[in-house]
Amino acid sequence: MFGIAIHGVCGRVGARIAALAVEDPEVKLVAAVERSGHPSLGKDVGVVSGCGDTGIKITPSLDAQADVLIDFSSPESTVAIAEVCAKKKIALVVGTTGLNPRQYEKLQSVSQVIPCLVSPNMSVGVNILFNLVGQVARMVEKEFDIEIIETHHRFKKDAPSGTALRLAEKICEATGREMAKDVVYGRSGITGERPVDQIGMHAVRSGDVVGDHTVVFGSLGERIEITHKAHTRDTFVRGAIRAAKFIAKKSPGMYNMSDVLQIRS
Questions:
Q1: Could you say which of 28, 57, 156, 250 is catalytic?
Q2: Which of 52, 74, 99, 203 has the CA that lies 20 to 30 A from 107?
Q3: Are 21 and 86 within one domain?
Q4: What is the pLDDT of residue 262?
Q5: Which residue in 152, 170, 213, 228 is the catalytic one?
C-alpha cells in the first residue's frame, strides 16, 4: 500500500478520485489539497466527496508526505504543485488540460527529479483511441480528409480539449503533418477548397456531456468514424489511480498512459 495525495480535490474529477481511493485496498489517501480561499477548506474530504468521514482535512498546501500526488487543477496550479512535489520527492500524475508549452517544459524539468506522468486523458479507452487513429491515418495517407470533433459539458474552460489536441498530434506524428500549419480550428466564411493536409478541429460545448471524441476519415465514396464516449468521470478516475500505482516506484522521468497500458506504437 502507498500513500496518495490529491491536488484539486474539490473539482469534479478530484472529488471522485478521493472517493474511489478510499475504497481501493491498494492505496491510502493521505492528503487532500485545494486552492487557498476555497469554501471547503478545513472540511473532511470524505464529506465533500460523498464517501463519509475519512479523517483527512482539505488543506491549501501539501503538508503530509505521500508516495504519489494526483493533480487535476489548473495549469498554473499544476506547475506550482509540481515544484512542491520535486522538493518532497513525491511522484506526480497530472491530468490537468490546457497546459501551454512553457508549463509543459516546466513539468519536463521536474521529471528530471521525480517520476512524472502527464496525460490529457486517463481513460483506458481514449488511450487506445490515440493509438488507433495514428495507425488509421498512416494507412489512409492523403486519400482521406481528417476531422476531429469533441463535445464536453458547458463548464469546461479550455477548447479544444487536451484529448482532441493529442489526437491531432498522433495523426501529425503518423503522417508528417504539422500542428501549427495543418490544423484548422473551426471554419467560417468563404474558406475555399479543403487543403489535402488539413485536419479540422471542432469543439462543442453542451449540457452535461462528460466527454465525446470522434475522428472522421472521409474520402469520396466512404467514411470511417472512430468514436469514444465517456459515460462517467469515474473512467478518468480509475485510470488516474492506475497511473498512480504504476508510477509510484518508477525512476525519475516523463511517462504517459501508453507506458501504463504497455501500448507500443
A1: 156
A2: 203
A3: yes
A4: 87
A5: 152
